[in-house]
Specification:
This protein is α/β, with parallel strands linked by helices. It has a domain at 2-179 and 209-237 and 301-321: 3-Layer(aba) Sandwich (Rossmann fold). The chain is built from 12 helices and 14 strands. It has helices at 11-22, 38-44, 46-49, 62-69, 86-106, 147-166, 212-224, 243-252, 264-280, 291-297, 306-312, 320-327; strands at 2-6, 26-31, 52-56, 74-77, 111-115, 131-132, 170-175, 177-179, 191-194, 197-201, 209-211, 232-235, 259-262, 302-303. Helix 1 packs across helix 7, helix 4 packs across helix 5 (86-106) and helix 5 packs parallel to helix 6 (147-166). Bound molecules: NADP nicotinamide-adenine-dinucleotide phosphate. NADP nicotinamide-adenine-dinucleotide phosphate is lined by residues 7, 9-13, 32, 34-35, 59, 78-82, 92, 115, 117, 152, 175, 177-178.
């Protein structure tokens, strides 16, 4: 079997390519001309690299992408911009996705797997303590969140539109925050990182994290599992800690994180004041803390990965505890 992977040189893409090669799958990597192949090659290993071939092209070049997809049964679309302005992210993520789906349809691909993000859910309107699953509504106002979340939601919409138009079987995976060696364990879900200081927002919110290898396995399964065309799967690990527990785990592991704590009842008034000052001062402080965004990312919710387990036949093979230790900055081996 041959598959095509975009974003193969990235954090998740490298693990996915390795996993597919370990299964004996031939992998074609679509990389951009500027991509650095060295760490992908290292991660895959010289023996398995024999079954990898690389096509260098811009994702906007639909003809070349279609030619590269010929003979591939699955396309794993992992590539996306993670930072930048809204227009930059639309150009790197939303526009190419449309072209890639059309190209895949023309090339006779049997399934297109899009890696999206758990961030697309409309958590702002959800009740604290409720369960977030695949039936939860997506954010109706993603432009009020941040350019990245906005682009991922628009990327999904573009994908469904082309799916409707072409009938190409589409599966979407929405990973939580991906942790792993080199990425660390702290994220905006814990709080705001101000230089060396972590401003912990509340603390009782569970962190929707997933270890990079567990995530790669879920994405792989989204391509292989039968009877899941048209489905969406959240990808998160088991035994997720709360923000407070994570910082405690860091302390126990000898990684003291300098942190201050904003109690939950103060978060919204603080965000409202900050946002007012941001507007009043015409942007003296960056507009990162808005009541909408705050209510979206630091809400204490429950997360479930049951659908991925039951329909994809996926299990996070690395426990959260192990994932945590592998992701700490001092962990030498890139397991
Ligand atoms: N990281 C997370 O916590 C997280 C959470 C949820 C979802 N996701 C999603 O998971 C996917 C992979 O994320 P990641 O953490 O592996 O990101 P990453 O390490 O930044 O890798 C991004 C990959 O996409 C490629 N890429 C970026 N812009 C591109 C463009 N305009 N044209 C072609 N290729 C482009 C990069 O190629 P170069 O090597 O050339 O730069 C790289 O291979 C993304 O779709 C992301 O939205 C990530």
């Amino acid at each position: 079997m041959s598959v095509l992977v975009t974003g193969a040189t990235g954090f998740l893409g490298q693990r996915l390519v390795r996993l597919l090669r370990e299964d004996g799958v031939q992998v074609r990597c679509l990389v951009r001309p500027s991509s650095d192949l060295q760490s992908l090659r290292q991660s895959v290993g010289e023996v398995l690299w024999n079954g990898v071939d690389v096509v260098s092209t811009e994702l906007m070049d639909s003809d070349r992408c279609r030619d590269a997809m010929m003979g591939c049964s699955i396309v794993y679309h992992v590539a996306a911009g993670l930072s930048g302005s809204t227009s930059t992210l639309f150009l790197s993520s939303v526009v190419p996705t449309r072209g890639l789906l059309r190209a895949a349809s023309e090339a006779g691909v049997q399934r297109f797997v899009l890696v999206s993000s758990l961030g697309v859910y409309g958590t702002q309107a959800m009740q604290s303590g409720s369960i977030l699953d695949e039936r939860s509504p997506v954010d109706p106002h993603p432009h009020l969140r941040d350019p990245y979340t906005y682009s991922k939601l628009m990327q999904e919409r573009a994908a469904w539109e082309v799916q409707q138009e072409t009938g190409l079987p589409l599966v979407i995976v929405r990973p939580g925050v991906i942790i792993g060696p080199g990425r660390g364990v702290l994220s905006a879900r814990v709080g705001l990182q101000l230089g060396p200081l972590m401003v912990r927002m509340g603390g009782t919110q569970h962190l929707p994290y997933i270890y990079v290898d567990n995530c790669a396995a879920a994405v792989r399964q989204a391509g292989l599992a039968e009877g899941v065309d048209g489905e969406v799967f959240n990808a998160i690990d088991d035994d997720l800690p709360t923000a407070k527990e994570l910082l405690r785990m860091c302390r126990r592991a000898g990684h003291r994180v300098k942190s201050v704590w904003i109690p939950r009842p103060l978060i919204q008034p603080m965000a409202a004041t900050y946002d007012w000052y941001h507007r009043w001062s015409r942007g003296q402080l960056p507009g990162v803390l808005t009541p909408y965004r705050t209510a979206s990312i630091w809400k204490p919710l429950k997360y479930t990965n049951q659908k991925a387990k039951s329909q994809l036949g996926w299990q996070p093979s690395i426990s959260f505890d192990e994932a945590f230790h592998r992701s700490l900055p001092s962990h030498g081996a890139d397991a």
